[in-house]
Design brief:
By secondary structure, the chain is α+β, with helices and mostly antiparallel strands. It contains 13 helices and 19 strands.
């Protein structure tokens, strides 16, 4: 990106011209660029970093002893969960190992007192509670209350969705009603990632609402909606519950050391002699777009639960392209290299025009310096003469900035895509075991800084005169030499996949520059 800011670029010439007319010092120019760098770095921290809020205590949820309730398993080809009465916990994602060095499956709600509870609140009779001992096995359970109301619970797993169907047969002589509820109780995940929304997630009134852990420490939230889901999301996983019933109230709060997301639906009347069923869904699995889109058939809005950032319209197709390439080459590092090459080819016409404009600017140097010196005390005439010079050579001072401006949204879109891509987790490439985290040996950031410096060197003039109006240009040129170092430090803690993209982009930029130089001779 910084190759468009050197002495020969239109932007640099515009800055030098501005400096000549306003008699700025080289030191003030240095401070201006340094201030812009730290301002950009501060904005990245503000808008992408996790926020911190003071903690406050809230009302604890009721703790009950369910040790007498027998446990069973419910499984699909992708999940294996523990069922204990109304509660489901320790949901193992069998297709996802904990790490590259640990083949144990990822476990959601595997800690003590972390669980999902799906039940009924009765009116006019009694309903099963968390301590109720059911009869049955293999996902089919039954329980009879003292008032003649029979309950049957069917628990099935299909992919990453666990379906709970409660069938109520009212054998009594009076009408009763039941209000279904579902809640997720879990601990905070301290390993949050900057740039990814983690914490509570709710889909209410056709809108996704996310609340960071730190915000839940401060206050609770409530929503009313006709359908949707509520639960919690980590960087790569999410666990949510959804009741297939209208008129729902969803709440999110902190309870002791845990956090609770619950949904309660309107009461369902079951008349004497009548049988009715209530269905609830649990999604416990990866935040992968294809999987979430498939789950949309049962859980409304879940396909929208991934936050791709401001440039979502670029991030989603880029992630699709990356996954498509990987399905062919079977390595995400190679896929990133190929995708970078394709992106560079797409902007080749703009890049060629930019480099051509830089060559023209270099040829204009002597005449520009003459004009700046001749009309140094006449600002209006200086501007007029400079505009005539640009018109004569059919160029503009900002012509070289377009490729840089295009790369900015591409950069942030790819940053988001790599952060939310569960496929990038544990993706190997060369010495790196996980492209979704920083390079542990800082090799890639150093290579990125080196290629950035080479770009500057190839585009910079061999000598820079430091007289008169060009003092500012020389000072700016010296300051720009520090940019590769500053960018190396900034990129050192970014995902290795993103640094790989930027490094390869720099290398391809150098190659393109050499091709344009040879073909333009």
């Amino acid at each position: 990106m910084v190759q468009f800011l050197d002495k020969n670029s239109g932007f640099s010439q515009w800055n030098a011209n501005r400096a000549a007319t306003q008699k700025k010092s080289g030191f003030s120019s240095f401070l201006w660029w340094l201030g812009m760098f730290f301002l950009a770095w501060w904005m990245v921290g503000v808008f992408m970093g996790p926020k911190q809020q003071p903690q406050t205590q809230s009302e604890d949820i009721e703790t009950v002893d369910i040790s007498a309730v027998p446990t069973a398993q419910v499984s699909s080809d992708t999940v294996d969960a523990t069922v204990q009465g109304l509660r489901i916990s320790d949901i193992k994602l069998t297709n996802y190992p904990t790490s590259s060095a640990d083949s144990t499956p990822v476990s959601l709600l595997g800690a003590d007192d972390n669980y999902i509870e799906v039940g009924l609140l009765a009116n006019g009779t009694v309903a099963p509670t968390a301590t109720t001992v059911w009869q049955g096995a293999d996902g089919n359970y039954s329980w009879r209350g003292t008032s003649g109301v029979d309950f049957n619970r069917m628990i099935t797993a299909d992919g990453y969705i666990i379906t709970i169907t409660d069938t109520i047969k009212n054998g009594s002589k009076q009408d009763v009603s039941f209000a279904p509820y579902a809640r997720v109780v879990r601990a905070k995940n301290p390993a949050s990632s900057a740039g990814v929304n983690t914490g509570a997630i709710t889909y209410a009134n056709s809108d996704i609402e996310t609340r960071a852990w730190s915000k839940l420490d401060k206050k609770s939230y409530a929503y009313t909606t006709t359908n949707g889901f509520t639960g919690f999301a980590d960087q790569y996983w999410q666990t949510v519950v959804s009741i297939d019933s209208p008129d729902q109230t969803m709440r999110i709060k902190k309870s002791g050391d845990n956090y609770v997301a619950d949904a309660a639906a309107g009461a369902v009347a079951v008349h004497a002699g009548e049988t009715k069923s209530i269905v609830s869904y649990i999604f416990a699995g990866p935040r992968e777009q294809k999987i979430l889109d498939a789950a949309e058939a049962k859980i409304a809005g879940i396909g929208e639960s991934i936050d791709y950032g401001w440039f979502w319209f670029l991030a989603r197709p880029m992630l699709w392209l990356l996954n498509t390439i990987n399905s062919i080459v079977m390595n995400y590092g190679v896929a990133i290299i190929i995708m970078t090459l394709l992106l560079r080819l797409c902007i080749w016409p703009l890049t060629r025009k930019s480099y051509t404009n830089m060559a023209i600017m270099q040829k204009m140097q002597p005449e520009m310096q003459r004009i700046q010196k001749l009309y140094a005390n006449d600002k209006v005439r200086l501007q007029m003469e400079m505009m005539k010079l640009y018109q004569t050579h059919k160029t503009s001072p900002m012509a070289g900035c377009l490729p840089m401006l295009i790369q900015i949204p591409v950069f942030f879109a790819l940053y988001k895509a790599l952060l939310v891509s569960v496929q990038m987790r544990n993706a190997h490439f060369l010495w790196m075991s996980d492209l979704s985290v920083m390079d542990p040996y800082f090799i890639l950031p150093i290579l990125m800084g080196a290629t950035m410096w080479i770009q500057q060197y190839l585009q910079s003039p061999k000598t820079v005169k430091s007289t008169g109006a060009n003092d500012t240009i020389a000072q700016t040129q010296k300051m720009m030499r520090w940019m590769p170092i500053l960018f190396t430090i900034m990129f050192a803690w970014m995902p290795a996949g993103l640094v790989l993209y930027w490094t390869v982009s720099n290398v391809l930029g150098i190659v393109q520059m050499q091709i344009i130089r040879k073909t333009s001779k």
